[in-house]
Records
---
Amino acid sequence: MIIDGKKEAELLRHEVKKEIDSLKLKNNKVPGLTVILIGDFAPSQIYVKNKEKKAKEVGINSEVVRYPKEVSEQEVLKKIKELNDNNAVSGILVQLPLPSQINKEKIINAINPLKDVDGFHPVNVGNLSSGYHATVPCTPLGCLFLIKKTESNLSGKHAVIIGRSNLNGKPMAQLLLKENCTVTIVHSKTKDLKIECLKADILVAAVGVPNLVKGDWVKKDAIVIDVGINKMGDKIVGDVDFDNVKDKVRAITPVPGGVGPMTIACLLKNTLECFKGR
Ligand code: NAP
């Protein structure tokens, strides 16, 4: 089974829109999302444009604050404070990566955790790892959503996650632990990746190495989630050798059209939840 991330993202966006419509009818208020975009890094520009478009489609008041790449850290911090204090703003997102004069940690820490739609603030990270209510980073949240569409009860399953970034691998591990999976995280220093991957009922690859996971690294009946987005010539490929894996497993996400579309849909869902939580 090929998991259709585009279709699932559309369904999730539809649900978000329905809820926003009904909240608007009741309270005459809608969520507001402000994205801060610094510099002219092309992938960030495209990504932010997509976020803005999709947010507007579901009825979120979406605004992009743009700064040139020379902007000072002070100015961005001042803007974040202003947005923290603005009741019409339910979600704040600072698009990464940031230019070198700006300290990422300072910026993330400055965002009110209740408006941290990316789930990067240490309060949200801590709450997630303590098993409390937290805003969860959008990509792993989208991965969990796709996994649960395939298998609703994950209890006792062995999940193997390749990659230990704060953005993907670590929150993915926390989410799967919460689902009562037995979780293994592997990374660049792991001795034998293949042996670890072969144990996986659920395999999540969040690495950034094209076609790393081979056909003989997967167990029959595994659910394979490919987070990777890698350019190979003029093609975009994932971290999983899709053609040689797809017929050996129970379910797999394609790249593109798998996890990618879920990330923005989950951002809209997080914005709605932040709006409701205040
Ligand atoms: P990252 O911060 O670079 O982390 C990559 C992780 O993979 C690290 O933990 C690294 O190990 C591990 N790794 C690198 N090479 C490895 C190897 N040969 N064998 C085993 N592990 C290896 O990357 P990220 O931000 O998590 O992103 C990962 C991928 O997901 C990228 O392709 C990115 O473009 C993509 N992505 C997709 C979405 C989406 O919406 N679909 C969103 C975000 C990111 P060490 O910790 O030991 O260095």
---
Amino acid sequence: MSVKPIIAPSLLSADFNRLGEEIEMLNHSEADWVHLDVMDGVFVPNISFGMPVIKAVRKLSEKPLDTHLMIVQPERYIHTFKEIGCDMLTVHWEACTHLHRTIYQIKEHDMLAGVALNPHTPVAGLEDIIQDIDLVLIMSVNPGFGGQKFITRALHRIAELRAMIKRNHSNALIEVDGGVNSDNIADIIKAGADAVVAGNAVFKAENPENMIHQLKHL
Ligand code: DX5
Ligand code: ZN
């Protein structure tokens, strides 16, 4: 593989009793971004963490914060996420009535704007907005929890999206989230992904830093 994939470890699977050490480990590692999963208990059936934790992460992390908002009406918090130091903000297609406006609000705040698609949401729904967005997050599990099994249909969706990006001369990156590990990353990249999120695969590994290296170079 010539171009190395972007690796975004998901802090959701980290040991929160040792959050500082986990972030130091990421600083030393070949991780490119830190993936932050914000859940509100409404859009998804789980609650994770919010602003105070992200502020603490920002203080320690040397890597860009790739923030995945699994919340309803995410537009209410764009300003706050910028203020606390997020670099990229990804909102769910399913959670935004005025997606185009929300995307431009994120960009006006000088963050990269991403759109996440649940496993059932047709990729074709992005055709009219693909030129406006910086990143598409293809969910390869149903959002809400780490440690779930990769839904293989995601591979077709990545390929379909790659074709759409090409046909529209878009610069959008494709990131894949959920169940990514050293067994399936090669297929994911081959299908056309630029970036992968890895939670359990990294933080439950015997040596997380080695695992990040492995994912980067597989
Ligand atoms: C799921 C989250 C994912 C999750 C990934 O709702 O969006 O980012 O933390 O964890 P793994 O890699 O364990 O599936
Ligand atoms: Zn995520």
---
Amino acid sequence: MAKKTVKDIDVRHKKVLVRVDFNVPMDANGHITDATRIKAALPTIGYLLEKEAKVILVSHLGRPKGQVNLKYSLKPVARHLGELLKQEVYFGEDALSEKTKIQIESLQAGEVMLLENIRFYAGEEKNDPALGVALAELAEVYVNDAFGTAHRAHASTAGVAGFLPAVAGFLMEKEISIMGKALAKPERPFMAILGGAKVSDKIGVIENLLAKVDILLIGGGMANTFLKAQGYEVGSSLLEADKVPLAKTLLKSARGKGVKLYLPLDAVVAEEVGVEASTQTVAVDQVPEELKILDIGPETASLFGELIKSAKTVIWNGPMGVFEIAPFAQGTMTVAKAMAEVEGTTIIGGGDSVAAVEKAGVAAKMTHISTGGGASLEFLEGKELPGVAALLDK
Ligand code: ADP
Ligand code: MG
């Protein structure tokens, strides 16, 4: 169901509380090392300022566990945001203190303030209704633009939405509309590429996508469990023996649904992960007992590449190998480059997959790179995210 956005509600001169995801990496000196998440919120903030709203931003940073811990202060973010917006960003040192309330009351139309880390309050992660109400009392409209935390039912992501008119920001809208459309009404052939370390991390994703896609490519560590389920020996590779029966069921279910499921035909194997590792390429029925599968082989990579280019909608989650280490990166890089050539919709979900696409230099060619690792996985599992569910329907 489509959700109302900032464009569907009157914000002029109103106090608007915006949940953003400013959980940015910082070095030991409190310098922001990657401002991607701050920049991702600029369209929504910019729109609200243009409409002369009074913008009150709320976010978490790290895991201060419900206590004030200045190591996790958002103050450096306020400064950084001010530079990006070229206007002062006021800082509310204690999100809910009287002083902050007075600061909010004196905010003028078109001014911005950032509240201190909301996870300094124990009620945040517990979704304490008292905190939800307290946040709601600061404003007249609530906007959620924090897709990355939308899978958490916290006071600032879900609870507060019960007490104010609640709508999506532009980043949130982009995430849910592109991924939502791909899942509900994909242009076909619809393909999913799944990889990453473990089957157990992705069971829900595999099950949900299996019911929707035409073609499923499986690589990465998780393919080992499927290969084993097909009767191959995978040597010393990462294997989840207890998931072999599940893999058999999933393979059977794919056949039943007419999904074309492809597993690796060959693999890059080595004794250990390492930049200096001596590698071999073997067929999947020839994996030596003492070696580990650490990437899909060249034959598989070129088959996957060709299949990918023929799809009209592709969702990719999980690298094809240990792509962080050069000798095992080739399969993942080939897949990333093929994704860049798709004439259709390409969606990347999952933290490591995003890193892989960036490493391959093709990020700009993707239709959508999800900003939320855990949230995008839960979305692909078909779960309703609490932070999305709480917003008004269109
Ligand atoms: P994402 O973050 O995109 O959801 P995952 O976290 O599930 O992806 O998986 C990424 C990790 O999987 C990477 O650290 C990668 O090194 C590892 N991996 C991929 N293939 C293998 C393999 N064959 N053996 C061991 N680890 C692997
Ligand atoms: Mg990961």
